[in-house]
Amino acid sequence: MPLILHYHPLASFCWKVLIALYENGTEFDPVIVDLGDEKSRAAFLELWPQGKFPLLQDTTRNRLVPESTIIIDYLDAYHPGRIRFIPEDRDLARQTRLADQFYDRYVHEPMQKIVTDRVRPAGTRDPYGVKQARETLLTSYPMIERDMRSREWAMGAAFTLADCAAFPALFYANKVEPFVGKYPDMTAYLERLSARPSIVRVLEEAGPYFKFFPAEEPKD
Question: pTM for this one?
Protein backbone atom coordinates (compact mmCIF):
# COMPACT_ATOMS: atom_id res chain seq x y z
CA MET A 1 0.00 0.00 0.00
CA PRO A 2 1.53 3.38 -0.97
CA LEU A 3 0.50 5.28 2.17
CA ILE A 4 1.85 4.48 5.64
CA LEU A 5 0.70 6.44 8.70
CA HIS A 6 2.94 6.47 11.76
CA TYR A 7 0.76 7.47 14.69
CA HIS A 8 -0.68 6.57 18.08
CA PRO A 9 -4.43 5.92 18.58
CA LEU A 10 -4.64 8.14 21.68
CA ALA A 11 -2.74 11.12 20.27
CA SER A 12 -5.05 14.01 19.50
CA PHE A 13 -3.20 15.40 16.48
CA CYS A 14 -3.20 11.88 15.02
CA TRP A 15 -6.99 11.86 15.31
CA LYS A 16 -7.10 14.88 13.04
CA VAL A 17 -5.42 12.95 10.21
CA LEU A 18 -7.30 9.72 10.89
CA ILE A 19 -10.61 11.57 10.54
CA ALA A 20 -9.58 12.82 7.11
CA LEU A 21 -8.42 9.36 6.01
CA TYR A 22 -11.58 7.65 7.24
CA GLU A 23 -13.89 10.30 5.79
CA ASN A 24 -12.63 9.50 2.29
CA GLY A 25 -11.99 5.81 2.83
CA THR A 26 -8.35 6.38 1.90
CA GLU A 27 -6.41 3.16 2.21
CA PHE A 28 -3.21 3.19 4.26
CA ASP A 29 -1.01 0.93 6.34
CA PRO A 30 -1.14 1.90 10.04
CA VAL A 31 2.05 1.79 12.09
CA ILE A 32 1.48 2.45 15.79
CA VAL A 33 4.42 4.25 17.38
CA ASP A 34 5.07 3.45 21.04
CA LEU A 35 7.61 5.96 22.30
CA GLY A 36 7.88 3.96 25.51
CA ASP A 37 9.13 0.95 23.61
CA GLU A 38 12.83 1.21 22.78
CA LYS A 39 12.59 -0.60 19.44
CA SER A 40 9.51 1.30 18.26
CA ARG A 41 10.96 4.63 19.35
CA ALA A 42 14.31 3.99 17.67
CA ALA A 43 12.66 2.99 14.39
CA PHE A 44 10.52 6.11 14.36
CA LEU A 45 13.37 8.46 15.26
CA GLU A 46 15.44 6.94 12.47
CA LEU A 47 12.66 7.91 10.10
CA TRP A 48 11.79 11.28 11.67
CA PRO A 49 14.34 12.55 14.25
CA GLN A 50 11.94 15.18 15.61
CA GLY A 51 9.95 12.30 17.09
CA LYS A 52 6.55 13.95 16.58
CA PHE A 53 3.59 12.14 15.09
CA PRO A 54 1.54 11.80 12.98
CA LEU A 55 3.89 11.20 10.07
CA LEU A 56 2.67 10.16 6.63
CA GLN A 57 4.91 8.14 4.34
CA ASP A 58 4.01 8.08 0.65
CA THR A 59 6.10 5.29 -0.85
CA THR A 60 4.86 5.97 -4.38
CA ARG A 61 6.16 9.52 -4.39
CA ASN A 62 9.00 8.86 -1.93
CA ARG A 63 7.77 11.56 0.44
CA LEU A 64 7.69 11.94 4.21
CA VAL A 65 4.95 14.34 5.28
CA PRO A 66 4.87 15.55 8.93
CA GLU A 67 2.35 17.80 10.73
CA SER A 68 -1.37 17.09 10.73
CA THR A 69 -2.49 20.12 8.69
CA ILE A 70 0.21 19.54 6.08
CA ILE A 71 -0.71 15.86 5.84
CA ILE A 72 -4.36 16.67 5.13
CA ASP A 73 -3.31 19.30 2.59
CA TYR A 74 -1.07 16.67 0.96
CA LEU A 75 -3.90 14.13 0.85
CA ASP A 76 -6.15 16.71 -0.80
CA ALA A 77 -3.52 17.31 -3.47
CA TYR A 78 -2.21 13.80 -4.19
CA HIS A 79 -4.77 11.35 -2.78
CA PRO A 80 -8.10 13.19 -3.14
CA GLY A 81 -11.44 11.67 -2.23
CA ARG A 82 -15.08 12.70 -2.31
CA ILE A 83 -14.46 15.31 0.40
CA ARG A 84 -12.06 18.11 -0.40
CA PHE A 85 -10.88 19.35 2.97
CA ILE A 86 -9.53 22.65 1.67
CA PRO A 87 -11.91 24.48 -0.69
CA GLU A 88 -10.72 25.47 -4.14
CA ASP A 89 -12.00 29.03 -3.69
CA ARG A 90 -8.99 30.96 -2.42
CA ASP A 91 -10.86 33.15 0.03
CA LEU A 92 -12.78 30.23 1.50
CA ALA A 93 -9.53 28.23 1.62
CA ARG A 94 -7.92 31.03 3.62
CA GLN A 95 -10.84 31.11 6.05
CA THR A 96 -10.69 27.33 6.40
CA ARG A 97 -6.97 27.41 7.16
CA LEU A 98 -7.58 30.17 9.70
CA ALA A 99 -10.25 28.08 11.44
CA ASP A 100 -7.88 25.10 11.44
CA GLN A 101 -5.15 27.17 13.02
CA PHE A 102 -7.59 28.65 15.55
CA TYR A 103 -8.50 25.19 16.82
CA ASP A 104 -4.85 24.09 16.81
CA ARG A 105 -3.37 27.17 18.49
CA TYR A 106 -6.15 28.33 20.81
CA VAL A 107 -7.84 25.08 21.82
CA HIS A 108 -5.60 22.12 21.01
CA GLU A 109 -2.26 23.48 22.20
CA PRO A 110 -3.49 24.95 25.51
CA MET A 111 -5.37 21.69 26.16
CA GLN A 112 -2.14 19.79 25.59
CA LYS A 113 -0.29 22.14 27.92
CA ILE A 114 -2.68 21.23 30.73
CA VAL A 115 -2.51 17.50 29.97
CA THR A 116 1.28 17.29 29.67
CA ASP A 117 1.71 19.27 32.89
CA ARG A 118 -0.22 16.55 34.69
CA VAL A 119 2.39 13.93 33.83
CA ARG A 120 5.46 16.00 34.64
CA PRO A 121 7.39 14.96 37.75
CA ALA A 122 6.57 16.72 41.00
CA GLY A 123 8.57 19.89 41.36
CA THR A 124 8.81 20.48 37.61
CA ARG A 125 5.21 21.47 36.93
CA ASP A 126 4.24 24.86 35.53
CA PRO A 127 1.15 26.21 37.33
CA TYR A 128 1.48 29.64 35.73
CA GLY A 129 1.64 28.10 32.25
CA VAL A 130 -1.40 25.98 33.03
CA LYS A 131 -3.26 29.07 34.26
CA GLN A 132 -2.47 30.83 30.96
CA ALA A 133 -3.62 27.78 29.02
CA ARG A 134 -6.96 27.75 30.84
CA GLU A 135 -7.39 31.46 30.16
CA THR A 136 -6.79 30.82 26.46
CA LEU A 137 -9.44 28.09 26.43
CA LEU A 138 -11.92 30.29 28.27
CA THR A 139 -11.33 33.04 25.73
CA SER A 140 -11.80 30.62 22.83
CA TYR A 141 -15.02 28.99 24.00
CA PRO A 142 -17.33 32.02 23.58
CA MET A 143 -15.83 32.66 20.13
CA ILE A 144 -16.65 29.10 19.03
CA GLU A 145 -20.10 29.34 20.59
CA ARG A 146 -20.78 32.49 18.57
CA ASP A 147 -19.58 30.91 15.32
CA MET A 148 -21.54 27.68 15.78
CA ARG A 149 -24.79 29.49 16.50
CA SER A 150 -25.58 29.54 12.78
CA ARG A 151 -23.44 26.73 11.34
CA GLU A 152 -23.64 22.99 11.02
CA TRP A 153 -19.89 22.53 10.57
CA ALA A 154 -16.98 24.83 11.28
CA MET A 155 -17.15 26.52 7.86
CA GLY A 156 -20.89 26.15 7.28
CA ALA A 157 -22.53 23.35 5.31
CA ALA A 158 -19.37 21.51 4.19
CA PHE A 159 -17.14 19.29 6.33
CA THR A 160 -13.56 20.55 6.02
CA LEU A 161 -10.05 20.58 7.43
CA ALA A 162 -11.37 22.83 10.20
CA ASP A 163 -13.71 20.09 11.45
CA CYS A 164 -10.89 17.54 11.43
CA ALA A 165 -9.01 19.95 13.70
CA ALA A 166 -12.03 20.80 15.85
CA PHE A 167 -13.01 17.35 17.07
CA PRO A 168 -9.83 16.23 18.85
CA ALA A 169 -9.31 19.73 20.22
CA LEU A 170 -12.84 19.99 21.63
CA PHE A 171 -13.06 16.37 22.81
CA TYR A 172 -9.98 16.63 24.98
CA ALA A 173 -10.49 20.28 25.96
CA ASN A 174 -13.83 19.33 27.47
CA LYS A 175 -12.00 16.90 29.73
CA VAL A 176 -9.61 19.51 31.14
CA GLU A 177 -11.82 22.62 31.05
CA PRO A 178 -15.41 21.38 30.63
CA PHE A 179 -17.76 23.33 28.37
CA VAL A 180 -20.53 20.81 27.65
CA GLY A 181 -23.78 22.21 29.03
CA LYS A 182 -22.30 25.69 29.44
CA TYR A 183 -22.12 26.51 25.73
CA PRO A 184 -25.12 24.87 24.02
CA ASP A 185 -24.16 25.52 20.39
CA MET A 186 -20.60 24.35 20.88
CA THR A 187 -21.93 21.32 22.76
CA ALA A 188 -24.29 20.52 19.88
CA TYR A 189 -21.41 20.86 17.41
CA LEU A 190 -19.31 18.38 19.40
CA GLU A 191 -22.27 16.00 19.43
CA ARG A 192 -22.65 16.25 15.64
CA LEU A 193 -18.95 15.60 15.19
CA SER A 194 -19.08 12.63 17.56
CA ALA A 195 -21.83 11.02 15.49
CA ARG A 196 -19.88 10.96 12.22
CA PRO A 197 -18.81 7.39 11.32
CA SER A 198 -15.18 8.44 10.83
CA ILE A 199 -15.05 9.87 14.33
CA VAL A 200 -16.92 6.96 15.88
CA ARG A 201 -14.19 4.75 14.41
CA VAL A 202 -11.41 6.95 15.79
CA LEU A 203 -12.95 6.80 19.27
CA GLU A 204 -13.43 3.04 19.11
CA GLU A 205 -9.80 2.52 18.15
CA ALA A 206 -8.65 4.85 20.93
CA GLY A 207 -10.83 3.08 23.51
CA PRO A 208 -8.24 0.59 24.80
CA TYR A 209 -5.79 3.45 25.39
CA PHE A 210 -8.04 5.88 27.28
CA LYS A 211 -6.87 4.37 30.56
CA PHE A 212 -3.53 6.10 29.94
CA PHE A 213 -5.10 9.57 29.72
CA PRO A 214 -4.26 11.62 32.86
CA ALA A 215 -7.81 12.53 33.75
CA GLU A 216 -7.11 14.12 37.13
CA GLU A 217 -4.94 16.94 38.39
CA PRO A 218 -1.76 15.64 40.07
CA LYS A 219 -1.37 15.87 43.82
CA ASP A 220 2.14 16.90 44.80
Answer: 0.95
